[in-house]
Amino acid sequence: MEQKLFTELRTLYTTTKEAPAEIRIRIRMRDLIDPEILRRAVDTTMKRYPYFCVELQKKDGSYVYAENHRPVVISNSLHGVELNSEEANYHMIAFCWQDNMIILDVFHGLTDGTGAYEVVRTLLYYYCSERYNVMLKEDGIRLVGDEISTEEWIDPVAGKTDLPNPKQNELMSDALNFIAEAGLEEDRRHTVYSIAISEKEFMRFNLDNDGSPGTMVSLLLSRAIAKLFPEAENAIRIALCVNQRKALRAPLAHQSLVGGVMLEFKDKMRDWTLDKQGTAYRGMVFAQTQEENVLMGIASFKGINGMLLTKETDPERIGVASYINSLASKFTTATVSYVGKADYKEAEQYIRDFRTWTSPLGNNLLIEISAVNGRFTLDFLQSFSSPVIVNAFLKELDENGIIYDLQDVNDLELPNIKLPWTEQ
Q: What sign for the dihedral angle of Cα 379, 380, 386, 390?
C-alpha cells in the first residue's frame, strides 16, 4: 500500500546530518545477544508492521512511502547504518547489536515514541521467547497473525476536516537560551547524561507534591535553571510533549503524533513551595490538554504541512520548515518527553538498562524519560557538552531527598538519514 507523505513532511524537511530526526532506543539485555535469534525476531516483528517496511520515493513531485520487501538491516555494531541508504536496504528503520545491547533506529517522521515502543514490545516478545525458551504471555502485544486494522495505517491528520480554527497566536516572549543568554559554550559536542531513579520512590514523591513524572521533571528542571540564572531576562519555559492520539480518537495510529504544552516558570512562582508549584504546573497541563486545545494545535500543525506543499521545490520547503523550527527553539528553553510506562510485559525481567535518544531542538535541552523494569531513566540530550544544567538538576534532586544514580555520560551518536535532495 503506497502512502503519500503529509504528517511526516515537517520532520523530513528539518532533519540534518548534525541533528538527524531519529529515535534511537538502546536496550541492554541481561545476557549476550544471540544474533541468529535476533535475526529471526526482527524478521517476524517486521511482518507485523508492514507500514514500517517502506522506501521513500518521489512521484509526480510528491514524496511517498512505497512497499519495501528487502530485509530490515541488523548490523553488528553500536553505530548503526545510515537510514534511507543502500546499506539500510532503503528502509527508514534498522537494528544493530553488540555484546548484550540491542538498538532500534527509526526515522522520527515515520513514528514517535509510542509507535516505536510497540515495535520494541513485539521484538522483545519474539526474541526473549526463543532466547530463553519460555512461553511469554501475549496480552497487550501486537503479534503476527493479528488483523491489522486500517486505523493503524491511515494518517488521522491528513484527511481530518473538522478541526477547530487555531487560536490567533498570542505574542509569546522569548525563552531563556542556554547558549545565547546563559553563556554556555556552543562546542557542538552533542552529549547525553543518563540518570536513574527508583520508579517506586519517584512516584511516591510525585504523589506527595501533586505531580506526575513529566510535570515533576519539568518543574525540577525549571527550579534548577532559575537558581542557576537568577538574573535572566527571558522566560524559563519548558515544552512538555503530549500524545495527540486521544484527541484525534486514533489510539492505534502509527504516525508521529506529538504536540506540546508550554510550562512557564513565572517570577511570582519562585518563592512558592514545591507542592504549590506542582499544582500550578499540573493546572497548566490540564488546561492545555483539553481536547479542543489539542485539536487547535493539530490544526496549526496541519496548516504548516499544507503550506509546505504549496512550495514547489525541496529547498523552498526546507527554508520554511527550518524557519518554523527556529521559532519553536526561540520560545522554548528545554523540552521534556515521557511516553509513559513502557510495560514490556514479562520480557522486562531480561532488561538491564533502557535509553531513548533523539536530537534536541536547536541549542536547547531535551530530557527523555523512560520507565522500564522498576526505574525511571532520564536522558539529558544536549547539543553542547557542559554539565552545568545536569549538575543543577542533580542538586535539586538532592535538596528534595530524591536518590539517584548518574549512570554515565556518552556522545549523543545518531546515525544519519540520507535525504533525496543530498544524493547528487
A: negative
To which residue does cell 530524591 refer?
402
CB of 30 closer than 8 Å to CB of 182: no
Spatial separation of the C-alpha atoms in residues 284 and 281, rounded to whole Å: 5
pLDDT in tens, 298-325: 999 999 999 999 998 999 999 999 988 8
Q: Which residues contact 249 (CB under 8 A, 6 or more apart)?
A: 156
- For 128, residues 6+ apart whose C-beta sits below 8 A from its C-beta are 134, 136, 346, 347, 350
Dihedral angle computed from the Cα positions of residues 378, 200, 142 and 113, in that order, rounded to the nearest 10 degrees: -20
Identify the residue whose cell numbers are 542556554.
178
Distance, in Å, from the CA atom of 406 to the CA atom of 384, rounded to the nearest integer, reads 18
Residue given cell 535541552 in the structure block: 365
φ and ψ at residue 196, rounded to 5 degrees: -110, 140
Spatial separation of the C-alpha atoms in residues 123 and 129, rounded to whole Å: 10
- How confident is residue 424, by pLDDT bands cut at 50, 70 and 90? very low
84: its cell numbers: 534511507
Share of the chain above pLDDT 70, in %: 98
Bridge partners, 417 (sequence order): 83
CA distances (Å), origin 265, targets 31, 219, 390, 401: 44, 8, 18, 22
CA distance 74 to 104: 9
Q: Give the integer Cα–Cα distance in Å for 422 and 424.
A: 6
Q: State which H helix or E strand residue 264 sits in.
A: strand 258-264
117 CB-side CA count, 13 A: 23
Tell if the pTM clears 0.70, that is, is over it.
yes
162 burial level (CB within 10 Å; 0-12, 13-18, 19+): exposed
Alpha carbons within 13 A on the beta-carbon side of 344: 29
Question: How far is residue 90 from each of residues 16, 24, 42, 47, 52, measured CA to CA in Å?
Answer: 18, 18, 16, 17, 12
Pairing of strands 365-372, 54-59: unpaired
Please state, in angstroms and rounded to a whole number, the distance separating the CA atoms of residues 296 and 35: 46
For every residue of 231-253, DSSP letters joined together read: T--SB-EEEEEEE-HHHHT-TT-
Task: Tell me the HSE value of 119 on the side-chain side, using a 13 A CA sphere.
Answer: 31
